[in-house]
């Protein structure tokens, strides 16, 4: 009988990535749980195999091999106390920054703590023995495969990360006796590059830059990104947490929010990902992450390369070291055209957060700063352009309901010379309303509260909670707290704290007062604008703006909504008011 590779996919991924990262030297110790990987290595001529019956000795042997060759060495052992015997040698490797990879094989972690024989807990190795430790579980789903692939890449890259040192893979096995796999399906390889490395060439095809949550851009970074776009015909995809103000940006959420869109995927061959947590999905066929932290962050499961350097260093390298002629801006024109086409097809929307954003976005005063609440407010305003000089922020880091107003207040306090605007839902407002009692708040602060008496996110047509209808009101959408909308609670609270108060319950009322809110002149007091909307209108507005490319029933529904008598009347009123 001929033996080849094991049928266990998590072990196959280890084998595939060891080869992809150029790691071939193996010291194996005898045991049962490591049979699947050791046998696969033994029958593969790529690997250079050594044997050591004592794991203590095996690890020190690996230290000697790595010190001599400057290359990684792998040590493989079974369960029970075998892995504990690696600790003396791993301590040596840690303090000498030697690239030793310990693969300890095991049964499922579900057995830990249940007095199952030969099962030990390897979840917390001593801090000065391992740089990176990962658990590579048995693969049962696509999610498992992605997770294992990322973790194993991370462990292998860790052998040379920040000066290098020992890493650890705790490798689960199910004792498969299938060794018939001749060709292993390659696992996705993730490579890391640092400043000074010979960086890979920019691939052929369409190039995009996706910007997640980002602080204010330096003039230098904006310049090199724009020059990069000119050179490679690239486009920058951003939302209102990205703060990109350059020449080649496309506000993309309106495009990717369409129900016909392909899960946020653009026709981009290589997407360069900079920034942090984003509320928006923006994927290319492959993604390169650029960040000084050098970590593998793969929110869209497309990362193939990580560049541990500043964004300025990355883009400057590709501008200076590629002597090809500039390619122009055809991709930018294509996607700005796509965005504008969608904007032009937006129908009359019901009175809602989205409608308010549509009316007010272009009037936000120049050089002011705007904060948005998670998630309905941020998503609503992400459909519309703001003036280029307006900086925009949203608490996407923790991505929770709390702290939005406090963050706005803190920013306004530290920059009293600027105007600060915020848009939040009523539940977020109640959650964080105590921050408005701060004694140092001044007249540079203006806040919109979109009040529909519940958590709108759980009532929108596309929401998981929406399947329960009105049953979601009591606990899921938390309707009725703070007496709902039956008392002037927010009005009284705001005025007692010295705020000027505005209110609107429909489009006509809004159009009569909104200019006060966006007045670029400094007012005498901070201002709070409470806008009362209906949950059904909020959901309908979201459905209309996310189905602009739909045909059939959605178009029919849109026309019915647009031609309602009350909307026709309001359109006439709005035109008269806007002319004044």
TrEMBL record:
The keyword Manganese applies. Keywords: Magnesium, Manganese, Metal-binding, Thiamine pyrophosphate, Transferase. Coiled coil: none annotated. The keyword Transferase applies. It comes from the Bacteria. InterPro entries: MenaQ_synth_MenD, THDP-binding, Thiamin_PyroP_enz_TPP-bd_dom. One of its GO terms (biological process) is menaquinone biosynthetic process. PANTHER family: 2-SUCCINYL-5-ENOLPYRUVYL-6-HYDROXY-3-CYCLOHEXENE-1-CARBOXYLATE SYNTHASE, PROTEIN PHYLLO, CHLOROPLASTIC. This is 2-succinyl-5-enolpyruvyl-6-hydroxy-3-cyclohexene-1-carboxylate synthase. It comes from Mediterraneibacter gnavus (Ruminococcus gnavus).
């Amino acid at each position: 009988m001929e033996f080849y590779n094991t049928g266990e996919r998590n072990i196959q991924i280890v084998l595939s990535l060891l080869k992809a990262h150029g790691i071939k030297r193996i010291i194996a110790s005898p045991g049962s749980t490591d049979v699947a990987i050791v046998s696969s290595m033994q029958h593969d001529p790529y690997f250079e195999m050594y044997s050591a019956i004592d794991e203590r000795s095996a690890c020190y042997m690996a230290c000697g091999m790595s010190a001599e060759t400057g290359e990684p060495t792998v040590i493989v052992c079974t369960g029970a106390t075998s892995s504990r015997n690696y600790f003396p040698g791993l301590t040596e490797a840690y303090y000498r920054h030697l690239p030793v990879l310990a693969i300890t094989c095991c049964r499922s972690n579900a057995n830990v703590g249940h007095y199952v024989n030969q099962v030990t807990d390897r979840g917390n190795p001593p801090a000065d023995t391992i740089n990176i430790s990962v658990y590579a579980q048995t693969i049962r789903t696509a999610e498992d495969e992605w997770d294992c692939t990322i973790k194993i890449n991370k462990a292998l890259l860790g052998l040379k990360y920040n000066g290098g040192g020992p890493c650890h893979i705790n490798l689960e096995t199910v004792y498969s006796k299938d060794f018939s796999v001749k060709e292993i399906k390659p696992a996705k390889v993730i490579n890391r590059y640092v400043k000074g490395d010979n960086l890979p060439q920019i691939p052929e095809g369409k190039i995009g830059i996706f910007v997640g949550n980002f602080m204010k851009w330096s003039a230098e970074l904006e310049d090199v990104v724009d020059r990069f776009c000119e050179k490679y015909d690239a486009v920058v995809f951003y939302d209102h947490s990205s703060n990109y103000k350059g020449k080649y940006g496309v506000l993309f959420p309106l495009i990717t929010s369409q129900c016909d869109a392909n899960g946020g995927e653009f026709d981009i061959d290589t997407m360069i990902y900079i920034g942090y947590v984003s509320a928006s999905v923006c994927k290319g066929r492959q993604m390169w992450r650029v960040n000084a932290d050098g970590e593998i962050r793969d929110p869209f499961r497309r990362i193939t390369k990580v560049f541990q350097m500043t964004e300025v260093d990355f883009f400057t390298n590709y501008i200076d070291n590629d002597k090809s002629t500039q390619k122009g801006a055809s991709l930018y024109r294509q996607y700005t055209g796509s965005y504008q086409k969608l904007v032009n097809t937006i129908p009359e929307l019901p009175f809602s957060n989205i409608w308010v954003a549509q009316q007010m976005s272009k009037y936000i005063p120049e050089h002011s700063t705007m904060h948005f609440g998670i998630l309905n407010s941020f998503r609503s305003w992400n459909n519309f352009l703001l003036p280029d000089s307006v900086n925009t922020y949203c608490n996407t880091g923790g991505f929770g309901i709390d702290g939005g107003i406090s963050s706005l207040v803190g920013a306004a306090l530290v920059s009293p010379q600027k105007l600060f605007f915020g848009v939040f839902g009523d539940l977020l407002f109640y959650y964080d309303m105590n921050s408005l009692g701060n004694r140092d708040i001044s007249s540079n602060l203006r806040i919109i509260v979109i009040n529909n008496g519940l958590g709108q996110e759980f009532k929108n047509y596309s929401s998981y909670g929406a399947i329960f209808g009105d049953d979601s009101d009591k606990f899921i959408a938390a309707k009725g707290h703070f007496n709902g909308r039956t008392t002037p609670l927010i009005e009284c609270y705001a005025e007692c704290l010295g705020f000027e108060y505005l209110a609107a319950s429909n489009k006509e009322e809004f159009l009569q007062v909104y200019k006060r809110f966006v007045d670029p002149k400094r007012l005498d007091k901070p201002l709070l604008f409470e806008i009362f909307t209906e949950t059904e209108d909020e959901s309908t507005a979201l459905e209309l703006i996310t189905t602009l490319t739909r045909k059939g029933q959605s178009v029919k529904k849109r026309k019915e909504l647009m031609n309602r008598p009350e909307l026709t009347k309001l359109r006439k009123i709005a035109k008269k008011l806007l002319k004044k």
